[in-house]
């Protein structure tokens, strides 16, 4: 069983990528997502790709899956009813929350505060108290706790978050044991296991969020595992974590808060693999799908890992790839509000059902996809012929925009839709680059997703990020990332010490202890110690500051070097330094297993002339008029071929647009490298 299978479920399509790890050969499939039961679309895609590869499902040795089940439960408000146990006196920790209101000066007036995930009537107090040094001040009153737990019968999940439990977890573990007796069958999440760090609100909301999505994620995992097993797949099921690593299905079901950005993380992991083959270690990722666009920044082939995960109005303390999302995709709906008469695009989306007007499934609203059809950028068939586009419906839909705005032509309205959605996505790319102190001109851009390559050249012009890298099979790159990543686990601990009261030996011992904890988890999943590697981060601040900055370190990093690294990062972010003493706040160790043995495919060499891959010419609307563009079959391109714009490059899962004044060079790894002609 030398096949690995990556699965990514999006809002519009489910992407499947099958990799022969011996030869590096890949097979891909794209099927419509099935929101009512995502596992149905996954199994349909697996059967489709195995039929194309000519292998039985039993040949699949491992299924690696990026999922949005936890994300959707949060966004749609369809999670479990969660009970919460707090320390006596802290029952309203979720209602008090953190004193931050988004928006401008009037934000406190216009911002509707979201409802806590655990209702106040489902929150009980435990008589106990632990000091910040871990000593027990008030012992746990077990009899009173049993009486209080009886009031929570009917909850579907239980979260336990006690004050200072990061320093001593004995009371939380005992409460979990008692809850198993009083509330049989109810899954219990304890904060000392989910997030053993200080700040009671962040620890509590993260633990509650874990319980909120746990029953739904567990049901999905069980359902998917049984369906693929019944279908004949003998390999193990692994789930992609938000930080880009893998977890076994049972581990993922136990800690689903780590899956909230599972889908976008797969795209970043796939982009790292592609950029490494093409030789660009620093790059921006641009993942445009049917519903949304995800962007991230990668330095030295390492994605930036954030300490917070944001989904809608919810922010939890969970490690995740620093991905920013905007409601801009191929299905984003264009509209002209009556009040302003100004064109808007998104965030509403036509989704997969009914989809854009071009799909002919009943959708009538003009979308970005319809605009691309009107401009001639898209072929008549998508997803290997599974979707046939109706140009007349697209023209009629976009014509309503032209009429509402008094524009001279439907093409002008379509160009306006494309320009606006490009600006929306440009704003997201600035969030991960300029706002973080990085110049996007110092980075390449890896563009993927079903719609990404269509808009990538334009985004390259806006950001100045060259080359724009279009990977092979860009529409299924998230699935490729799922299939080429490795098992990972993380351990963390709050450990507040001023540098003057800390030694190099003490810091090294702390990191080693955390690495050992994470290593044991991977060892239990079959990854030997010799195949493991560890990375470390510590959170540092100036003494007296109310926030800290994560700093990557090595196992033997000394305090002097750590202080210098913190100062450099602080100055990069805020342009100033303080004279206060440095202070360690928390430390983390992440242990990863070996990368899979997936051989990269090298294209046969060819000259600059790419005319052998031209299949037709097609009129497209660029720079205010119609021009003839050559249409290339990507599978016929050879390494070294140069595709000069205007041109369209077509393949099963995506379409690439090369604008006038630009050219795409075919790299031997199969990626297209788009640059301005003068470059």
UniProtKB/TrEMBL annotation:
Ranges for domain Acetophenone carboxylase-like C-terminal: 508-666
Region (Disordered): 346-365
Residue ranges of every copy of the Hydantoinase/oxoprolinase N-terminal domain listed in the record: 4-182
Pfam families per record: Hydant_A_C (PF19278), Hydant_A_N (PF05378), Hydantoinase_A (PF01968)
Domain Hydantoinase A/oxoprolinase: residue ranges: 203-489
Cited InterPro entries: ACX-like_C, ATPase_NBD, Hydant_A_N, Hydantoinase_A, Oxoprolinase-like
Name of protein: Hydantoinase/oxoprolinase family protein
Natural source organism: Streptosporangium longisporum
Highest classification ranks of the organism: Bacteria, Bacillati, Actinomycetota, Actinomycetes, Streptosporangiales
């Amino acid at each position: 069983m030398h096949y690995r299978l990556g699965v990514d479920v999006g809002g519009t399509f489910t992407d499947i990528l099958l990799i022969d790890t011996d030869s590096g050969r890949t097979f891909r499939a794209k099927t419509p997502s099935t929101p009512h039961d995502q596992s149905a679309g996954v199994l349909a895609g697996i059967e489709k790709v195995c039929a194309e590869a000519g292998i039985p499902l039993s040949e699949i040795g491992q299924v690696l899956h990026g999922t949005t089940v936890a994300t959707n439960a949060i966004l749609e408000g369809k999670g479990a009813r969660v009970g919460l146990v707090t320390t006596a006196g802290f029952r309203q920790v979720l209602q008090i929350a953190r004193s931050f209101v988004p928006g401008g000066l009037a934000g406190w007036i216009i911002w509707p505060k979201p409802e806590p995930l655990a209702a106040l009537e489902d929150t009980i107090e435990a008589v106990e108290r632990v000091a910040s040094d871990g000593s027990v001040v008030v012992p746990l009153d077990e009899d009173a706790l049993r009486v209080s737990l009886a009031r929570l019968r009917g909850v579907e999940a239980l979260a336990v978050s006690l004050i200072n439990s990061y320093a001593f977890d004995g009371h939380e573990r005992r409460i979990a044991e008692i809850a198993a007796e009083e509330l049989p069958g109810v899954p219990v999440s304890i904060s000392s296991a989910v997030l053993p760090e200080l700040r009671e609100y962040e620890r509590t909301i993260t633990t509650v969020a874990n319980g909120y999505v746990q029953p739904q994620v567990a049901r999905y995992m069980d359902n998917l595992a049984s369906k693929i097993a019944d279908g004949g797949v003998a390999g193990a099921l692994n789930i992609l974590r938000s930080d880009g690593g893998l977890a076994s299905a049972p581990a993922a079901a136990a800690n689903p808060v780590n899956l909230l950005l599972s889908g976008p993380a797969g795209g970043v992991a796939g982009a790292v693999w592609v950029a490494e083959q093409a030789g660009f270690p620093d790059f921006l990722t641009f993942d445009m799908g049917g519903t949304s666009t995800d962007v991230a920044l990668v330095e030295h082939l390492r994605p930036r890992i954030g300490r917070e995960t944001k989904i809608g109005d919810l922010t939890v303390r969970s490690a995740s790839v620093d991905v920013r999302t905007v409601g801009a995709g191929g299905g984003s709906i264009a509209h002209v509000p009556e009040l302003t008469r100004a064109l808007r695009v998104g965030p509403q989306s036509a989704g997969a059902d009914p989809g854009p007007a071009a799909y002919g499934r009943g959708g009538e609203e003009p979308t970005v996809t319809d605009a691309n059809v009107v401009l001639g950028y898209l072929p008549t068939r998508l997803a290997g012929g599974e979707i046939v586009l109706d140009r007349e419906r697209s023209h009629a839909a976009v014509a309503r925009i032209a009429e509402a705005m008094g524009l001279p032509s439907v093409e002008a309205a379509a160009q306006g839709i494309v320009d606006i959605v490009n600006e929306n996505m440009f704003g997201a790319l600035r969030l991960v680059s300029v706002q973080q102190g990085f110049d996007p001109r110092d980075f390449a851009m890896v563009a993927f997703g079903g719609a990404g390559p269509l808009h990538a050249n334009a985004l390259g012009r806006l950001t100045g990020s060259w080359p724009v890298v279009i990977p092979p099979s860009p529409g299924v790159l998230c699935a490729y990332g799922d299939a080429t990543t490795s098992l990972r686990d993380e351990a963390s601990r709050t450990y507040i010490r001023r540098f003057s009261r800390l030694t190099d030996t003490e810091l090294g011992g702390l990191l080693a202890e955390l690495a050992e904890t994470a290593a044991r988890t991977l060892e239990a999943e079959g990854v030997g110690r010799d195949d493991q590697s560890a990375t470390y981060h510590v959170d540092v601040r100036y003494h007296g500051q109310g926030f800290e900055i994560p700093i990557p370190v090595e196992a033997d990093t000394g305090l002097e070097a750590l202080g210098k690294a913190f100062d450099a990062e602080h100055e990069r972010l805020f342009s100033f330094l303080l004279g206060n003493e440095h202070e360690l706040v928390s430390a983390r160790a992440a242990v990863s297993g070996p990368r899979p043995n997936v051989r990269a495919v090298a294209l046969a060499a060819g000259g600059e002339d790419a005319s052998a891959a031209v299949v037709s010419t097609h009129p497209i609307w660029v720079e205010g008029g119609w021009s003839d563009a050559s249409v290339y079959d990507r599978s016929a391109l050879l390494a070294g071929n140069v595709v000069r714009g205007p041109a369209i490059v077509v393949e099963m899962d995506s379409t690439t647009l090369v604008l006038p004044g630009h050219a795409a060079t075919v790299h031997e790894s199969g990626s297209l490298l788009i640059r301005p002609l003068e470059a």
